[in-house]
Queue: 4 jobs
Job 1
Amino acid sequence: MQETSISWCDMTWNPVHGCSKISPGCKNCYAEEISLESGHTDNPWTKKHEAENVSEKPHKVNEPHKEDNPRRIFVNSMSDLFHSEVSETFIRKVFRTIRNTPRHTYPILTKRPERAISIDIQYPPNAWVGTSVESKTQSNRIDTLSQCDADIRFVSFEPLIGSVGKIDLTDIDWVIVGGENTTDEKRREMDHSWARNIKHQAERDDTNYYFKQSSGRYPETGSKLKTINKETMEYEKRTIQETPTPNKAVQNARANTDATNQSSLKNF
Ligand code: SF4
C-alpha cells in the first residue's frame, strides 16, 4: 500500500493491476501511462490486450492488515476491481480483507457497476462502492449503482468532460467532482457550470459534495468552486469538500483501534 496525493483518500491498495478502456473518461488514463512507463504492462490498455494486462496480485491481498491506524484506502487506483478479467474468487478475497479490517474505510471505484451488483456479495459496512461518470452518456451508471447493496454509494464525476444534465442522486451518499488532471496538451476542459449543476442536484438530494479540482485553466483554477453565497447572493470561490460519515459499526471499530493504539503508546 502507498500514501497518496489523491485528496479524498489517505492510501492506495492495488491487489489487481491493469485494466482496459471502456468509455471516453479513460482516454488519458494515468494508470495506463504509469504502468507502461514502469514496464508493468507491455501493451496498450485496450480490450484486445485485457487478458494479458489485467493481473491479480495474491501477495497484496493482506496488506491492509499491516496498517494499524484507521485509514481511508482507495482500492485499485491502478485497475478496476470489477473488471471481467478479475475472478469472482479473487474479488471475494479482497472483500474478506475489507471485512476483517473494520478500522479502515475502502472507497472502490468502478466503471463496471453492473458487475458490482451482479456478484452475490454481502458488502461489509466499511466498503464504499462508487462509479465514475464523465458526462451525460454514462449517467445510467448512477442508476445501476443505486441498486448496489453497499452502505455508502458514491459517484466520481472525474474527469468531468461534459454536462451530466439531470440526474437522480437520491440513493447516492457522496459525489466527487473534478476536471481532468493531466498536461495542458491532453486536458479536456471542464465548464464550471457542469460542476455547479451537480452541486445544486447534490444539495437537492442531500448528498455530500466534494469538489476536487478544476481542470486547471484560468480563471477558475485550484480546488475552489465559485458558487452563490445564499446570504449575500454574490458568487464567491470556496472549498467544498464534504465526505460521508461512516456508519456506527465502522465508527466503533475506529474508536476501539484508537483506544488500543493509545494504550500501547502508554505502555511503551
Ligand atoms: S476504467 Fe479506470 S483504470 Fe480502467 S482504463 Fe478506464 S480510467 Fe483506466
Job 2
Amino acid sequence: FNMSGGCKQVAYAFHPHVLYVLCSLLTAAHGLSDEQREFQKVAFDFAANEMAPHMAEWDEKEMFPIETMRKAAQLGFGGIYVQPDVGGSGLSRLDTSVIFEALSTGCVSTTAYISIHNMCAWMIDTFGNTEQREKFCPDLCSMEKFASYCLTEPGSGSDAASLLTTAQLKGDHYILNGSKAFISGGGDTDVYVVMCRTGGKGPKGISCLVVEKETPGLSFGKKEKKVGWNSQPTRAVIFEDCAVPVTNRLGEEGQGFGIAMKGLNGGRINIASCSLGAAHACVQLARDHLLVRKQFGETLSNNQFLQFKLAEMATKLVASRLLVREAATALQESRSDAVSLCSMAKLFVTDECFNICNQALQMHGGYGYLKDYAVQQFVRDIRVHQILEGTNEVMRMIISRNLLTES
Ligand SMILES: Cc1cc2nc3c(=O)[nH]c(=O)nc-3n(C[C@H](O)[C@H](O)[C@H](O)COP(=O)(O)OP(=O)(O)OC[C@H]3O[C@@H](n4cnc5c(N)ncnc54)[C@H](O)[C@@H]3O)c2cc1C
C-alpha cells in the first residue's frame, strides 16, 4: 500500500513472520527454554492466523468468538495453569504470561477474556474438592463451558470487601440475593464464580460459590456499551432468591475473599501480559508506518525525534516484560514478595503499555484515529487494564501497605 500519497489499503499488517521477527528483535523469546519458545510460537501463529484477521470485525459487531476460543483451548489455552488430571495444561505462571502476551498481539479483548476464564478455572482447580474439580474443570479447560468472575458490585468496586450480595444457608442450599456489576462474559458464560456474604461485615464474612447458568433466580442486565473490550460481553449478574447447592461452595465459609484475591494475583500478571502483547504489536505497527510514510520529502523514520520515541517505546516494552516475568516467577515460587510484585507489574506495565500504544497512534497521525488502522483498537482495548482487576490506584495501596508494614 501507498501511504505517502494517502491511504489505499487497510493497514492490518499482521503477518506471522513479521511478528516473529519483531519478537526476537525485542527479546520476547530470549531467556525462555526451548519448550517455552515452542508454545510461544504456537500462540503467535494462532494470534496471527486465527485472531488478527478478525479482531476488527469482532470489535465492530461485538462478537464473542466462541469457536475461536475453543480452537485455542485445543492448544491447551483454556486451562493453562490448571492441573493436567482435570484437563489443564499444568504450565507455570511464566509460561502463561508468554502465551497471553503472544495471543494479545492478535486480539487483546478476546485474550483478556480467555485470561479471566483461566483464572476462574484455576480457582476451582486450586480451592475446589475432588468432586468440584472433576465436575467443572474438564469442561472449562476444553472451553466447552465458559466462566465468569463475580466480585464487583454496583456499590463496591475498589472496596471489594464491602460487598453486599448475601447467601443465606437454608438446608443444603444457599439462597443468594444481590447483584454484581461489570461481569466479563456475563450472560454468555456458563459458570459464575461468585463472592458473596455468608457472615458479618468485612472480608472474613465472604464466601465463594460456583453458580451454574441454569440456576433459577439467576438473571442478567443489559449488555454494556464499551470503549473497547468489545469482543466480550459485559453485563450485571443478578441473584433473586437464587438457590445454590452447598456442595458448590469453594473452600470453607469465610475463605471467599482470600480465594478471590489469590485468583487476582495471577489475574494481574495475565492482564499485564495482555498489555505487553498490545504494546508489542503497536511498536511493530509504528515502526512499519514510520518506514513508509513520507513527509517533508523523506520517510518519517529519518526523523530523529520519532526515532528516539520509537527507541523509548521499545525500551519500555522490554522493561515491562522483565517486570511481568519477575512477578510471574515470584508467584510460581510462592515468594513473600509475590503479591507486591504482581501489583507492581499490573501498575507499571498497564500504564507503560497504554502509553506505548497511544504514542504509536500519535505516530500514525490522522490515520491512527481511523478504524481501518489496528492501532486505535489496541489503544481502546488496553485502556481498561488500568481500571480492572484492581485499579492502578489500588495497586499503589497494596504496594505501599506491604512496604510500610514489613518488619
Ligand atoms: C470492562 C470491564 C470489565 C470488568 N470485568 C469484571 C469482572 O469480570 N468481574 C468483576 O468482579 N469486576 C469486573 N470489572 C469491575 C472492575 O474491577 C471495577 O470497575 C474496578 O475494580 C473499579 O471499581 P469501580 O468501577 O467501582 O471504581 P471505584 O472503586 O468507584 O473507583 C473510582 C476511582 O477512584 C479511585 N479510588 C477509589 N478508592 C480510592 C482510594 N482509597 N485511594 C485512591 N483512589 C481511589 C479508583 O482507583 C478509581 O480511579 C470490570 C470493569 C470493566 C470496566
Job 3
Amino acid sequence: MTISYISKRKESTVTQTLSEHFETVRTFDSLDNFIPTDNEFNSIVVSLEFGEESIENFIIKLRKSDKHFITPLFFENNGAFLYFDTKITIIEVVERTKNVKTLYNEIGHHNYTSWENKILSYFYTRPDYNIVPKLDKHKEMFYYFPLVEYFYDGQEDYFYWLEDMANQNIFSKVKLVDRLFCCPFCFSALMKFSDHCPSCGSINIRNEKFIHCFTCGHVAPESNFLKNERFVCPSCKAKLKLIGEDYDRPLENGVCMDCGNYHIDSKLEVSCLTCHKTFTTEDLSKKFIYEYKLTEFGRNQIKFGTVSSADLIVNALNYIDLNYFTFTLNWSIQMQRRYKEEMFSIIALKLTLSEKTSSYDLLLEFSKFLRRTFRTTDFCSKIDNNSFIFLFPKTDSAGLDVLKSRIDDFIKSIKLNRGKFEVKIELFTSTKENVEEETAQQLLAKLANKL
Ligand SMILES: [Zn+2]
Ligand SMILES: [Zn+2]
Ligand SMILES: [Zn+2]
C-alpha cells in the first residue's frame, strides 16, 4: 500500500514508521504541492502544522477531486498519529487504510463523477460513520452537515438530497435532532415575525382592554369609557358599575392606530430573510433535522449502482401511488360525465437526461419549481422512473395553458453545470364528451404512449 506524508518538518520518526508499514511513502512539503500530483495514494497523513483553515480547504479539494475523494486522511502532531481528534497507533492507520481499500474495491468499478456518488461511496467505505448535523446560527437552516459539505458542489440544498436518500431507504434516520419552522418557498429558517392590523396591515397597533356596554351594545377600548375614574359608555352615557351586569369584557384586545380597527387577533406576518417573500404562519413549512446512517439496503444499492434521484419530484408534491392516482382520475371522469362544470386537466411529462447530466441537479430545480407552481389540490404520480403525471381538478384548457407556459418558461430558465436534458409534455383537458367512453386506465395509457 502507498501513503503520502505532507509536512514542512517531515519528522524523521514518522517517515521511518510509515516506511516500516507501507510499501511506498512519498513526502510533500506543502498541501498545494500535493493536490496537482497524478499519484494515487491509499492513505494520506497531514501534519497539523499547516493550521486549521488550510487543512479544511485541503480536505474540501480532496473530497471534490476525482482521485482522492475516498482516501483516508490522518493527522500528525509531534510525531503522533491522529484520526479526527483521537490519537491512534500506526497499526490502526494501516487497518483503516486497508478497510477503506477493500470496501472501495467492491464498488470502484462504478463511475464516480457526481458529488452524490462520491459521498455515497465515501460512506460505503466508512460503515461506522453517521451523517451528523451541526448547529450554526449563520446557516440558512441553522444546521449543516460538515461531512456532506466537503463533497457538495452547490449551496445548502443538499438537505433535499438527504431526505430523498432517506425516503428511498438508502439512509436511515437514526435520530431526530431538531424540528424547525421554515419558509415554504426556499426552506430557509431565517425568518422575521411581526404582527399587523388585520384590516389595513399596519404594524402601528396596540394591545388594549375592551369593554362591551350591555345597554347599547357599544364595544370600545377601556380608555374610551373612563370618565373621572368610572366607566361611562361614550355612546349611550350609561354608567357601567358591575361587570357581568352592566358590561363585560369582549374578546377584542387590539386597536390599530392607523385605521382605528378593533380586532381580536392581530395578523402574524412572516418575512423570509433569505428569499424576501412574505407569508402567514399557516404557510410555514416544518423541517426535521435528522442524523442519518447508510442502511444495508443502501449499501447494496451503492454496490450495484442503482441509487436514483427521481423521488425528489415526488416529495415536492401531493404524490400518490399510481393505483390511487388512477382511482382519483376515475372519480374525476365520472364527475365530469355527470356535471359539465367538473372539468379537470392532466399534464404528462417525461424527462430524458443525457449521460453527463446530473439528474439530481435537474430534479432539484424541478422539484422547487413544482412546489412553487402547483396547488395543494393537485396530484402527482410517477408512471416510470423519469415520467410523471399530474392531475389538476377544476382546471379548464385556459388554466392548463397557463401551467404549460410556466413549465416552458421554467425549462428555458434552467442552467445546468453540465449535461443536457429534454422534456416531453402531453396535455389533456376533459370535456363532457371526451370522457364519455374512456376509463382512467385507457386515458393514462394513451398519454403515456404519446410521451
Ligand atoms: Zn389598521
Ligand atoms: Zn352604551
Ligand atoms: Zn424564503
Job 4
Amino acid sequence: MPVLSSLLLALTASASSALLPRVDAPAPFNSSLFKDLNVSRGLNYHYYAVPADTGKLTLLFLHGFPSTSYDWRHQVPFFQDKGYGLLVPDMLGYGGTAKPLDPQLYVSSLVTRDIIDILDAEGIEQVVVIGHDWGSKTVSRLANYFPERFHSCAFLSVGYMTPALFATPFEERINLSKAVLGYDNFGYWDFFSSEGADQIILDHLDSFWDIAYANDTTTTITDWSPLGALEAFITNDTKVVTVDYVTPEERAIQMEAIRQGGLAAPLNWYKIARGTLEGQDDKGIPQENALIHKPIFFGAALRDYGTVSAPIFLAGALVASDTDSSVTIREYNSDHWVQMALPDEFNGDLLEWIESLGLDA
Ligand SMILES: *[C@@H]1O[C@H](CO)[C@@H](O)[C@H](O)[C@H]1NC(C)=O
Ligand SMILES: *[C@@H]1O[C@H](CO)[C@@H](O)[C@H](O)[C@H]1NC(C)=O
Ligand SMILES: *[C@@H]1O[C@H](CO)[C@@H](O)[C@H](O)[C@H]1NC(C)=O
Ligand SMILES: *[C@@H]1O[C@H](CO)[C@@H](O)[C@H](O)[C@H]1NC(C)=O
Ligand SMILES: *[C@@H]1O[C@H](CO)[C@@H](O)[C@H](O)[C@H]1NC(C)=O
C-alpha cells in the first residue's frame, strides 16, 4: 500500500502543469525529465528525455504490451550514467500518452510518424532504436519508413516483422504456427481482439499478470497461446508461481498503470494485427526498404514461447538484413521480459554492441 499511495501522490503532484494526463514512471526515472508533445496528428505523447553528453548517441527505447516506459527501468539509469541520450516514450494507448479507441489510429505508418515527431521536437537527427514486444514492430516499421533516422536497430524478444507478415490472413498464421511450433502461438490475439476483452482482463488482473509473468514459461503454451485458453485461465482466476525478478512493489506499480489507463486502447495493437488494418497499411512500405540496411541486434529469449521469439524463429530474424548489414545475435536463458529478467547481461551486451558500432566520439 505505501507504494501505491506514493505513486498516487506522485501522479497528483505532477498533474499540476496541464490538462494532459501525467503518469510519470517512478524512480529510477527522474520525474523532472518527463515531457509531453502534441505530435503532428494532434495526439499527446508522454516521454522520458535525457540529453546526450557531447559525442554520445541517443537511444530510443520502445516498450510493448501491456506496459509503459517503466519496462525500461533497468536500462535507463545504466545508459543515463554513461552519458547516452535517452528517449523513452509511453507508446500510443499507454501511460501518459493519448489513448484513442479507434484501431485505425494505431497503424504503423501513423505511429512511426509520431515517433519521428518526437525526434524532430528534440532536434535529434539519428538514434539507436531498441524495441521489445510490439515495440519491435514499431522498430521494424521505423526501419521501413524512416531508415535515414537510425544508426542501427535492436530487437528484443520479438524480431523483425517483415512487411509480408500481416498480409497473411490470421487463420493462415495460426495454421502456420501450429505446423512450425506444434501449438497455435497466436490464438490469444483472438481473445485480445474480441469485444469486452479489456474489461474481462481488468476484472481478473491478478490472474492475468500471473500468467504474463509466470515463472514456468511452458504455461504460455498451454494456458496463454491457444485459442480460448487465456480467457478460460483468467476468468477462472487461476494463480501460478510468478517470476522473482519483479518485486512486489514493481508489480503493484505495473498493475496500477494498467488499471489507470485501462486496456481498451492498448488492445488496439492486437486488433490491427489480428484483422486487416496493419496488413493494408504495410502496403505503403517502399519495396527498397523491406530489408534493413543497418546494423541489427537481436536479443532472443530462449524460454519465451508466447511470442515470435521462440528459438525456431531465430532464423527469421536474419532474413531482416540485407547482405551488407551486420547482425549481432545474443541468446538469453530468459522468458519474454529479458530487459527485466537479465538486466545486467542485456545491458552489457547492448552497450558492447553500441560501442562496437564505432559511432561514439
Ligand atoms: C533530475 O533532473 C533535474 C533536471 O536535469 C536535475 O536538476 C536533478 O538533479 C535530477 N534529480 C536527480 C535525483 O538526479
Ligand atoms: C494539438 O494539436 C492539434 C493540431 O494539430 C490542436 O488542434 C490541438 O488543440 C492540440 N492539443 C493540445 C492539447 O494542445
Ligand atoms: C487451417 O487449418 C484448419 C484445420 O486444419 C483448416 O480447416 C483451415 O482450412 C485452415 N485455414 C487456412 C486459412 O489455411
Ligand atoms: C522458477 O523457474 C526457475 C527456472 O526455470 C526454476 O529454477 C525455479 O525453481 C522456479 N521457481 C519456482 C518457485 O518455481
Ligand atoms: C481453474 O482453476 C482450477 C483450480 O484453481 C484449476 O484446477 C483449473 O485447471 C483451472 N482451469 C483453467 C482453465 O485454468
